[in-house]
Amino acid sequence: MTTQNDRVGLTDTFASRRYFNKFEKITGHLGSVAAVMQAEGSLSKEEVEILTRYVRGIAYTFRALSMKYLLTGRDTGQFFGSLTMDNHESGFPVATELMVMANDAQQARTHLAGMPTVEALKNQMVTQIIGERQIPTKLQFALSQRLYYEELLRGQVFWARNDPRVEWLSGVDVRRRYLVHWAVYDTEVNLPTIYLMEVEDTGKKAFPNDQDRWPEAQAHLMGQSLGALKLLTIAKGFDESFDDLHPKRLRRFHIGPMYSHSYTRQHGPIRDVLEAARSPEGEDWALAWTDELLTSESVRSERSGWFGTVEREIFALDPFSGRGVETGVTRMERSIILPERPFQVLAEKNPPGFDTVRKYVVSSAGRVLRY
Fold it and tell me: Which residues on neighbouring strands pair with residue 179, listed in sequence order?
């Protein structure tokens, strides 16, 4: 859990801009990494499309926040704060930033209605620069806030809660299969978390069109979207709550933490690697990516009422060293995404525990290699 001491405000203009530029590069690489995962068979085409959508949302969130805090550290005539990030655990903004952003989005139209247009602000800035020979800081601030609200109004950002959506996979009659996906910003560790669940529907009415089951299922899944809960707990709870919805496969992706020698103070081998790498600006980072998967291996019948029976899933747990009971998953894979220079140092140091971690090495040209 993040404490107050793990939070830091980026009050310096250049540090703030470097931070946002860093995440722009990181999120720009994630789509390519997902494509490599698809090519090697660890992600399906549908999963890549959904993950790419959420990753794009994360990128838009950082873009919006970069507009909001564009003038951090400058005298704008009023105090508007600075981005608060979790510099100890996640390297991402604290969850409060996304909650405030969601509230701002609700009032974006009202704010924009009372603001000059982008063109009007730019014209006023030119007039002040040429006519008055002054840096138009207050106008720059007004423009940055307008761009912030415009970005929120587009509505494609990654929110603190991204409610479940459903994609049809197969079947039209008795058994229909859907891919349900949703995402949250985990408030305990300040990280984006994405869920994908394959569901088999044996109800009379198609699941997404059922005005009773679909809203109830959405509420149930959002209520269970806690990083501390095991996938086994989430899947069994869903299975037992809906007699004609059968979770066949549940997957959870944790995006992060982000490590940076310049911005974060996590302990462990990666921090030492980044310190030794002395990477140039924009390449001083590494991003963890954790993939948890739970699959159903068989079905059992359970009595329901006087004469009926329902299907219940039996989930496959990791058979190695009894870890399945501990982790509540069929398998878990840890990956790390990092630029070439930090990877070279990681390969040289070869710290314990990284043999089983997948390494995705990205270049400025957009190339991705896996080790």
Answer: 167, 198
> CA-to-CA distance for 299 and 317, rounded, in angstroms?
15
pLDDT for position 3: 53
Nearest residue to 289 via CA among 263, 322, 259: 259
Tokens, residue 38: 């698809």
Tens of pLDDT, residue by residue over 131-178, are 888 888 889 889 999 999 999 999 899 999 999 999 999 988 889 999
Q: In terms of Cα–Cα distance, which of 77, 60, 62, 78 is closest to 10?
A: 62
Domain boundaries of the chain, sorted by first residue: 4-154, 161-370
Residue 202: exposed, middle, or buried by beta-carbon count in 10 A (0-12, 13-18, 19+)? middle
The pLDDT of 236-263, averaged and rounded, is 93
Cα(292)–Cα(317) distance, integer angstroms: 11
